[in-house]
Input
Amino acid sequence: MRPPESNEARILLGPGPSMVAPRVMDALRRPILGYLDPDLFVVLFEIQIGLRQLFRTENEITFALPGTGMSGAECALANLIEPSDRVLVVSSGFFGDRLVEIARRCGAEVYPVRSQWGRPVEPEDIESLLKQHPRWKLIAMVHAETSTGVHQPVEPIAELARRYEALLVVDAVTSLGGMPVEVDGWGIDICFSASQKCIGAPPGLAPITISPRAWNSIQKRRTACQSWYLDLRLLWDYWSEPHVYHHTTPVSLMYALRAALEMVEQEGLPARYERHHHQAERLWSGLQELRLELLIPPEHRLPMLTVVRIPEGIPDQEFRLRLLREFNIEIGGGLGEWRGQVWRIGLMGHSCLAHNVDLLLSAMNTLLHQYRSA
Amino acid sequence: MRPPESNEARILLGPGPSMVAPRVMDALRRPILGYLDPDLFVVLFEIQIGLRQLFRTENEITFALPGTGMSGAECALANLIEPSDRVLVVSSGFFGDRLVEIARRCGAEVYPVRSQWGRPVEPEDIESLLKQHPRWKLIAMVHAETSTGVHQPVEPIAELARRYEALLVVDAVTSLGGMPVEVDGWGIDICFSASQKCIGAPPGLAPITISPRAWNSIQKRRTACQSWYLDLRLLWDYWSEPHVYHHTTPVSLMYALRAALEMVEQEGLPARYERHHHQAERLWSGLQELRLELLIPPEHRLPMLTVVRIPEGIPDQEFRLRLLREFNIEIGGGLGEWRGQVWRIGLMGHSCLAHNVDLLLSAMNTLLHQYRSA
Output
């Protein structure tokens, strides 16, 4: 028997998905079109334009994969890596370690460079490893590490990638749309993201962009890409003229992504970044007033994902379930090393609004007061 | 500048996607839930129950992949195949050949058995190949070959798989929900499908079911599955208790799939199969009245996909574009060997209704008359 369902939108303040604006939700309901319908190609074309603006790139090969954000990681690595390629992965947490695992499954010789959880990796540590071996195929990194809330700056690593003639793959799943991501300006070769975080669309699509340098490397592969489903050449043959059939476009999600990208364009990137920054600052000062410890120092802190230590004596799961059931608010628990130790609070896309910050702080205040006075 | 868009639903009578019923469309618009929300798990649980009924299986491991139908093919093969495994692929067309290609990219030693296009593969041809080599890991086949409209019966091949101790992988992308698919009754080890054909949901998900025998084989792998995104062990760890995070569920598509499965259950499988069969017969006799040649003999013909030869002197692309622009109807063109030679007419799921057959026949009659009298 199904429990009664609420039609009231959950207030999503976890690590994603974020809330979806009504006009983006409405777009989901547009009539289905076939994968070769000329009217669909208009939608796909507009998505490409919107994504180029968002990624800040002129890369022609810019589109959305028919899978979640993690399909972007697999796509980037499976298309670039050939067996025994040397790959350096910059990892400061759970999602960096996923890149290590995926690169290994692509047959690469993988060299992880790790930081202590809660701190970014130092470029010097990366360079000292780069020096030790010749011929690096690529460096992969996470821009916004969602397990720790740490910002790993791209530019110093891009500079190393250029100097050591390696391609640079950047996971911008959490950052894209909420803070600057400069694909061309920084020199990123493949950048991928996800529809459901700071872009503000429903989950299920992975925006991706490929530099001419990366595309050239893919064209020169000696072996077929091990993934047929995520083979960039086949995918691009579909997205570009003359649109050779590869898979059936998840058209409802594409309508929604287009609508979300329109909202991004209307707001403007500087205003959007400023909104994420400003609401994060309101959240941080509110959390500190509640005597909650922010784990990441301000200079490494992400605006869209804030990590706080769970106070002594507060039961993690029960607290989050009460937030959900009594206040209709979701926040995230810890991952990996920080499981049970932290809460992860997201302010992403359409979730990143002043009244959501207020609702969360008020709810946490009520609950913390109950536990602390018990 | 965007062209004006119609909100009137396209009449989708191609090889899929098919039309989506209003209550399934409405389900898309339910509020987003996080991937660990207890209320989401209710949705996922109900999808599993609905899919087990539809696949006619008691397989515990039955769920929907976060990708299109082709992700089902890649998932099935990448999880079962280890490097150098011997794999037989039964191919009577374009989609059978895709299984050949995907199995090769998984590192298998692949032996295709092909038929002439428009005919199923004969079990004797399969057995004579099976006899020539020892130790077959699996046999893969397409139940309903969407490029030709040919029905490849599963039972004789399942019998061979048992006899030669191979696992059986069946692509039921086009058949599931429109004609009998008996996973347990026939002895299929992995069966996969797609949300957007005879199930009647929007595109973007791939239902899949795994037998205990196949699961055992996956548990005993010596190497990691080359796909992390489609690794069945990680996916199942998320779908089953205690729900370990792997990817962000495309929750909007899951709502719609659940609603579509409810409609399947309410109609009942025998009535649903009969509807597909009955409307196909109406279509076939109507097409013959229009003097169009059905390419597949009745005993090999699929109910949900009918292939007709394009009559001499009718321009393929122009004819289909006029159907689309003047009558709002989509039918499919030919694929592979039959490109430019045939039209593919689908009657799947919510598209498979008497008035759609009538509209198509009437539109084709009008257009054919114009061309023939020109």
User: Anything to note?
Assistant: Chain A has two domains: 11-17+268-372, 22-265. The mean pLDDT of chain A is 97.
